[in-house]
Each structure stands twice: as C-alpha cells, then as structure tokens.
Amino acid sequence: MANTPCGRHLPPGPSPSPPTAISEDDCTTLSTPPANSGTEASTAGASCQQGDLPEDIIHCIHSLLTVKDAARAACVCRGFLRSWRCYSNLVLNQHTLGLADKTLKEQEACIIKKVDQILENHHNNGIKVETLKLTLILPTYGSIKASVVDRWLQITVKTGIKELDLSILLQKEEYIFPCALLSDEAAATSIQSLHLSGCAFHPTSSIGILRRLTCLHLSVIRVTEKELGLLLSKSSVLEKLDISFCWGLTCLRIAWTLHQLKYLSLIQCIGLQSVQVDAPNLCSFHSDSIGILTEISVRNSSTQLQNIDLSMILLSDARTKLPSIIRNVESLTLHSPYGEKVNTPIPMLPSKFPHLKNLEIILHRAAMPIPPSRDIFSLVSFLAASPVLEFFILQIEEGASRPDHVSGDDNEYSRRKLEYRHDRLRQVLITGFYPSNSLVELMIHILESAASLECLTVDTIYFSNRRLGTIGRCPASTKDGQCWAMSKKNVVGAHRAVEVASRCIAWRVPKHVQFKVVEPCSRCHSIDQ
Questions:
Q1: Which of 131, 214, 345, 412 has its Cα between 20 and 30 A from that of 104?
Q2: pLDDT mean values, one per 10 residues, the chain (529 residues)
Q3: Cβ–Cβ < 8 Å for 95, 55
C-alpha cells in the first residue's frame, strides 16, 4: 500500500487504463468541462500523461477539490480520471449535481438517478466513502421515499466513513434516521463527525462505541433526552456538541465522562427546561434559551469556561443568574429578549465577573408599539462588575426603544453620577445610537471614569454583525454599491442622533481618546431623498 502525503492509501498494482473520454458512469454527469477549456484540457492532459507528478501526489491534490471541481479535472486529465475513481469526499446537492439551473420537475427526475450512479459506482469498485454530505431540502424532493435514502446510507456508512452530513426534508413522511447503521462496530468506530438535520433520531443501546466521534450537530431533530443521553454515553471523545431547533428535550445532562467536550451550543430548543453540565474542559457555551430555563448548572469547568454567548436572558436577572457559571469567563455576549420590561432596573450587586475582558450587550427590537425609552444607563451595573473589562459593545436594534428629548444640560447628567472606575476599558462601540438621555448619560460616565479609554465609536445605524474596526456603509450591503434600505423617518432620526452626539458628547471627549461618529451614508441616506 502506498502512503500518500495526505495520509491516504492507494490500492496496490497499476491503475486501470482510463477511457479516452469520461463517461456518465465514470463522473456520473456531475459536471462537464467549460466550453473554452480545449487548450487547457489538452495541456493538463498532456502534463498528467507525461508523469510529471507521482500518482499519489495527484491523488492527494484531487482529494482537496470540491466534487464539482474534481469531476471537471477528471474530464480533462487522465491522471485525475484514475484518481476520480477513488474520490472519497462526496458533497451531493443541487449545485454539485448540476441541477441548479433546472426546473423542479427536472430536478425530481434527475436527483435519484445521479445519486444512485455516484454511490453505486463507488460501491461496485470497492471505494470507501470518507465524507458524505447529502442535502435534500427542496420541496421537489418530497417525492423521494425514505427507503431510497436508507439505501444510499447503507451503501456509504461503512468502515472508513469519517464525516456524515445529512440534511433532509421529505414532504410525504418524516424521515427516521436508520440508527442500525451505527450498530456496525466498524462504521461506528471510524466516524468522526455526524451532522443530522430535518429527521427523527432514535438511537438505541445497540449502537456501537463511537470511539472517534468528535463533532455532533443535531438540527431540526426529534429526539428525547434519554436517546440523546444514550448517544452521548457512547461518545467519550466528543469535543463539539451543537443542538439547534430540536424538540423532545426537557432536560439535558452532560456528564463528566465527556472530558474532552470544549464547545456546547443550544439554540431554539423548544421545551428545554434544565441544563446540567459537568464537562471539565468546556471552553465555550452558547445558548438562546436561558430565559425559559428553570435550571442551569455548569460545574467542574470553572477554570476552562471563558466564552459565553447567552440570548433570551432578562438583563435584570443576569447579574443574579450568571455568577455561578461566569467566574472565569473572558468573553460574554448577552441578548436581551423581546418581551423584557424596558424600565426594569438592573440591580447593583457585589458579585463580580473578575476575568471578563469582552462584553457585548444586544438590545433587541421590542414588540410593537415601540415602548418608552429604556433606562440604558443601568447597564453600568455590568461595567462596574467587570474590573478588567477592555472591550464593550452595545448594539441597539431599531425599534428597541423610543427616543426622548435630550437637552445636553450638565445638571441632568449629575443626578446619577457614580464613583465606579473602569481603568482597563480601552474600546467602546455603540451601534444603533439614538437620542436618549440615559444613553448619553452612560457615554458621559464612560468618558469620565475610563482613564485608559482609547477609542469611542458611535454608529447611528444598527447592524447585527458590527464589530470593532469594521466601520463601513456600502461594502456591508447585500446589493453592490448600496447601503441597507432605511425609511425616511429612520434616516431623519439617525441624522438627529449625529447632532446629539456632536452637541452633548464630542466636547467632553479627552484629547487622547479617538472619537468617531459614523453618520448615515451621504449617498444612500440623504435627508433630501
């Protein structure tokens, strides 16, 4: 067996002589060479035929290409054609199968035939599939029967499979993943990544030990806590667990036996009420279900857990709920839920976030009608609890609060003057800045109490993907050369926010602090338009 630079093993003996042209059975009509590739094809073909590169290197290069590019290369080069017959990384969807430009009826007629050809070709030639990414989520695929998908998986989920990514949506029936495939000890032992989406998943005690499974992602899956617990008990080397839009779970228990688990994400798990995590090496925890959880416990990972992203948590509850899981966290993102009472005070408690360096708070749009102005100044509670905080980002969605009259009078801003110091705070970014007394108060407090402040950026437009150092307008658009659309009312409000920032904030900024006010794009968001 020849050992390639990629760690792959080629079968012994000479490769079979390739045909002069690639046939539908060879490349399964995944792709055809570009119309203008005649010269390139002959050059590439000659280069490969002359043996300039060893076959194991050609095979290694070929394995790094996408399915579509690998098929194209096989069409123009005999060396790649031989390699194609051993191509083990299959990504099968409407684009790689050449169906994107066909009608739904045409796709329905082609999908089964093409996938059958590809998988049976590999199976009949004894080629092990290492990666299978199969996506069947268009409405037309509703006519595909579950038995057909089962047959495809039975062909490929065998010894040597490393990654299985199945995204499926059958319109006529719910697809039930055949867990019996994982009862094969050889297949269970070789699989390293499992991603299931859009089906039911009911593992039983008969599944094998998943000795190499490091990544598990379940999305839009029906699974019970007992079934998931059984799967996790067989996955002792799991490093990443991502569960999203799943139902059937009321309690999630992560045992201490998952000592290699580093990343846990729980997104939109309807019905989940309790989370108990004992994984000793957990580094990152992401969840948007905290607001509906009655119990959350993260134990034994206090020295490792440094990155937390929590959505749907009442900011007024955060200071009381978080200290037990945030002692060593360095990065924290909080998403205020849509239904939070806008003027609920955030308590000042003695508990601290002693290692927190990066804090991001996102105030989401409230239910209509737009509520009164939030008391944003109360967020100073989080700054006061974070003695080593260096970066603070506050994002305010459009409609999260109602603007109020800002006078700029010094007397107004001395009423709640606090003695807290933020001696490590270096950069502050506020997106969605709007005219608000409490918001101006918060900015003044930061300017007066953060001697180490280097940069204060005020952006009058909210963008959910904004980060420090990514200021821009048109380049961030979904349309080339244009900004995101804004109503005239919002454009006027943004220009008023610019005026408030200049009148109430700018003159208070120390000389050593860089102050940026990002205005609406003058080309796309002019008041006169």
A1: 131
A2: 38 35 39 38 43 68 70 74 73 80 75 85 82 78 79 90 89 85 90 94 92 95 92 94 89 89 87 83 77 65 67 59 68 70 50 83 68 75 89 85 69 65 92 88 91 93 52 47 66 85 91 90 66
A3: no
Q: How far apart are CA 453 and CA 445, in angstroms?
A: 12
Query: Last residue of a domain, which of 46, 65, 86?
Result: 86
Rg of the chain over Cα atoms, rounded to whole angstroms, equals 29
Residue 38: alpha-carbon gap to chain centroid? 41
Count of CB atoms situated within 10 Å of the CB of 276:
14
Whether 492 is covered by a domain: the verdict is yes
Sorted by sequence, the CB contacts under 8 Å of residue 147 that are 6+ apart come out as: none
Grouping H, G, I as helix, E, B as strand and the rest as coil, residue 64 is coil
Domain span at residue 34?
Answer: 1-86
E strand or H helix at 333: strand 331-336
Closest CA to 269 of 301, 240, 291, 239: 291
What's the total number of domains in the chain? 2
Domain stop point among 53, 86, 119:
86
